[in-house]
Amino acid sequence: MTAVTIACCAPIAREPLSESDAAELAIMLKAVADPIRLRLLSMIGSHAGGEACVCDLTGAFDLTAPTISHHLKTLRTAGLIDGERRGTWVYYRIIPEAVNRLGALFAPLAEPATL
To answer: Which of 43, 67, 89, 106 could form a disulfide with 63 if both were Cys (CB 3.0 to 4.6 A apart)?
Structure first.
């Protein structure tokens, strides 16, 4: 019999998620399902040094500071970012493990499965 190489599926399609994993991931997915929050996450992650001051983020949006703060709080509550107050400003950074967990959910396997 000849081995057949099949490009396998993302982790979400390999086996059913547990109830607790699905609940945790749903919170993160819901947080990034908003275009403003997705942009904020991208801006924080791509900012020089891996962290961004809230003062660097607000100018990119036609939104009030309280609205930006609400979106940042949602990302923080979902466990995707963390923040540290320095003086009057808060500096945000991505939590790599959480963002990697989201990415891995849909990423194909590095090695194809062999049957």
So the answer is: 67
